[in-house]
Amino acid sequence: MTQAEVDDTLKRIQEHKGVQGYLIINNDGIPIRSNLDASLTQQYAALIKSLSDKARSTIREIDPSNELVFFRMRTKKHEILVAPEKEYTMIVLQATDVQ
Amino acid sequence: MSAPRTPTKSAGSKSSESKNPRESSSQSGTPPTGSAQRRSAAGSQLGSPVVRSGAASAVSPSGARDKLSSATNKQNAASPVPAPKSATERVEVAENAHFLPPGIHTIFISSATQQAMQLCVDEDLTQENNSKMIDKEILLNDIQTNGQGSNFYEFQQQIQSYPENEIAIIYDYDYYYSQNFLICFDSKLKKLIENPPVTLPIQESDEVEQYVPPVSKKWISLGSEVEIENERLVLNRPLKRYKIKVPDRIATTVSPSEKFKDLDPDIERKKNFVRIEQYEDKQFELKKMELDLAIQAAPDYRENSAQTIWRYPKNQWTQYEARTFTEEDKIKCMGDPVLMNMITNAKDLFSEALQQNIIHDPFYLDWKELGGNLDGLGGPGDSHLKEYQSFSSIKQSRDKIVTCVQWHPTLRGIIAVSLAAGQGFDERTDNLSRINTSPSLILIWSFVDPIQPKLYLEAPDDIQCFQFSPTDPHVIAGGCINGQVVMWDIKEYEERIKNPRGDHRDKDLFIPGFEDETFFQTPHIRYCAVSSIENGHSEPITDLQWIPDHYQITAQGLPTENLAMNCSQIMTCAFDNQVLFWETRVPRAGVKPLSKKEREINHPMGVPLTFKHLDLIWKPYLRVTMQSPETGMVDFAPRKFSMREIQGDRDTLNQEEKDLFEKKKDPSLGQFVNPLDDPNKSLSQAKAKVLQSIDTFFYIGTEDGQLVYQDWMPQKDQDSTKFSTPKAAWSIAVVDGPVVALKRSPFFKDVILVAGGWLFQIWKEKIHSGALLHAAPVKEKITDAEWSPTRPGVFYISKQNGSVDIWDIIDRTHAPSLSQSISSSAVTFLNIKVISSKQQLLAAGDSNGTLHILEVPWALRQPVNQELALVTNYLERETERRGFVKHRWDLREEEKREKERLASMKAGIAPSHIPTQEEIDIRMKNEFNEFLQFEFGVLREMGLRDENEAPVISSTAT
């Protein structure tokens, strides 16, 4: 996968209906790429990171051979989709009231 | 120590006799301590306090039981095992025998019997070893041989019945129980005697006394030597040495003049000579054996101090900046294959989730969207209006009808009602000559007091309509039946209205007998100003409205910005074919402000000066005269009118202005500043911009049931070059009686409800081909109509018979969803107000002068799901229908014309017009020109053509 393809993929995700933004953060919760504004990016990066760490440890605790791959959070305003991997985490926000 | 008491002895009884000769000699009346004497003196001794052995005293309790236990103690002490070392000399009393335990009896055994049974006192038995077991047989033998002489004779029975072989005989050493022996017939006690309890403390004390020579052990260090070492005094400074010197006796006391001389001992032997013999002083032989020494360590005086610094608590904070990557880092990270891998992995997951969300909302709850909660009081099941309160003044409401009802714009639970004589024109003219004594009034009611109105507003004549100023709620403008506009200012009475205490009849405020009667009475407030009679309406004013605060209308009819941002202009209409515009502010070149003194003078009847400048000279600044559409027809007699703009709706303003409005909404607003007080605030609207977006057209409902679409802006008449009101843009007769209500929907600015006669219709602005909703005539005359403020599809129609129809166009459009009777007489006016999100009140005045307040049920105030959309759809559909109808009309018109033409052609009456070639050419050219223009229009819209590239249209002139 090339850099261009990455951009392409992100663009495609972004083009889904109701998608408000995405961000990619590294293991330390430092945002690498985001199309949200700076303060919101910081907040999401820091908060979602700790949440996903917690979720991952929960899954590991229950079954050490298991691994958290993806989770979605439904909120009143939007749905937060999180894909935590070893090194990086990707977060996408989608508005729920798309209609 | 008292004399009779004998000292305790530690030795045996034998040695006691010789123990203390001094004591025994000093005793008088006490038996000698010797055992023989004691025995002989037994029984006759006076008791001395019992002194028991020290050992025994340790165990025995105090009190009466002492003696009993001491007896057992004694027995115990006599047991051979412990070998007591101490004994007590006792002097017994015969009564002591009472304390013997059952089974033990005193017995006297003679010395002969003693010898026979080997019980010799002091030989076989001693004080310590004082019991002996004798065989039953021996005792019985003794009884047999000696018969009554036997010492044991009296106990024969007991001896015989004694179950064991041996009987214990106890030697009562000190005749404590009055005989020298005790015999025991209780086997348990016998055992006790044989084996006295080993746990007795007496034994413990014995053990303590036994000396066990200590065995030397090897010393084991447990660390104590360190302590000792620590405790040791080490000289770390030279010992202090103090020299105490007592001054010598002053040598001078010895007289230096003392003279010594030799004396001859022989001569003055007797006089002065003393010979002291030499002797050995024993004092010097004493050897110092012991020496008391005391050392006291006196510490050096030392002063020390330590202090810690108390640092007061401080708030501390840290601030950190979120870690971020630089752009280069980010780019580097983005190029990380791990990240790319992650994105590849996550891509599908995300797409799936995102698409799922778009396709279907799993969290959508149909039930929740169904509409509202179905439980609770006033739920959808109950859709009837509920009587909430009703106001009727006994004095003032009589023979009056309610002409207008207005809610106070800001204060809750305050409502104003205007009352007028319910007379027809004829009656009125008949009564014109009579002096009407009762003034025309507007009553201001408060919900807290349904008996007495809060205020009466006096009017020069009956009020047909009135309205609170939306921005200054204490200013009320009313329209009189005589054509005058009346202004009130109730600012001074605002407190009274607000006061929740119902009736001001708080008697505690006044001393009895000194009540201020006027205080309890409802004040009558005189109007501040009336308009000039000659310049105003000449007919009863039928409708009055304040122009919304976001714009104002100039004398030229132009809507401009309202820089003052409060309502100051009033619009009225009357039957005299006029709609008038009134300005309440002082004109710029107006009256000079009055001085304070003048003001005081010009303050009759306590009327506020707010509108002093208007009183009796007030003229409308703009007149809209309604002309008949065609000559020969009656001019329009306006009865109700409706403007497009409504108070509080600022959509026509641009965002900037809106913000300005919000900003200017300071709390001081709502104070109608007396223009005399503030001349700067007078009309200075020169800078005001013209608001293009405000529609100057408005609808008028007339006395004849017409609906008129009229522009208020005057236009230059071509003939006279004067400005005059243009002709009505459009008019149509809509209802079969005077228009009584012309109300715009609160949701759709262009939807108008027209009611009058027995009909009501819903019209849409600028759709003049017909009504959107044309209901069938109702059976009773309609008196008023009102839209629901919260439900777009609901409106209320009040009728002559005192009922109110509730229409819900979502439910059905051919009939009211509900009809409810409210009053026995005709309902004359409806006004609805949203009190809170949970309460909505409908005020209905009737022709008896009573004001009914009805609570709107839940179903009628809570919009159904997507009601607005549904009603919008409905209205759009109807509008389309109107368009279609119009289209069909045109078609029919054409068809008709065509038919007529053909018919006339056939009949040969009309000259059959056969177009010549020239005519055909012209027509085709026209069509071509039309096409060119259309094409140009399209192209320009698409931005492909410029304005100046207009097509050259060839002349069509023939």
UniProtKB/TrEMBL annotation, chain A:
Keywords: Cytoplasm, Cytoskeleton, Dynein, Microtubule, Motor protein, Transport. Its main location: cytoplasm. It comes from the Eukaryota. GO terms for cellular component: cytoplasm; cytoplasmic dynein complex; microtubule. Coiled coil: none annotated. It is found in: Cytoplasm, Cytoskeleton. Residues 6-94 form the Roadblock/LAMTOR2 domain. InterPro entries: DYNLRB1/2, Roadblock/LAMTOR2_dom. GO terms for biological process: microtubule-based movement. GO terms for molecular function: dynein intermediate chain binding. The keyword Transport applies. Belongs to the GAMAD family. Acts as one of several non-catalytic accessory components of the cytoplasmic dynein 1 complex that are thought to be involved in linking dynein to cargos and to adapter proteins that regulate dynein function. Cytoplasmic dynein 1 acts as a motor for the intracellular retrograde motility of vesicles and organelles along microtubules. This is Dynein light chain roadblock. It comes from Rotaria magnacalcarata.
Automatic annotation (TrEMBL), chain B:
Keywords: Cytoplasm, Repeat, WD repeat. The keyword Metal-binding does not apply. InterPro entries: Dynein_IC (IPR050687), WD40/YVTN_repeat-like_dom_sf (IPR015943), WD40_repeat_dom_sf (IPR036322), WD40_rpt (IPR001680). GO terms for biological process: cilium movement involved in cell motility; inner dynein arm assembly. This is WD repeat-containing protein 63. Residues 1-90 are annotated as: Disordered. GO terms for molecular function: dynein heavy chain binding; dynein light chain binding. The lineage of its organism: Eukaryota, Metazoa, Spiralia, Gnathifera, Rotifera. It comes from the Eukaryota. It is found in: Cytoplasm. Residues 1-12, 36-46, 69-78 have a biased composition (Polar residues). Residues 23-35, 47-63 have a biased composition (Low complexity). One of its GO terms (cellular component) is inner dynein arm.
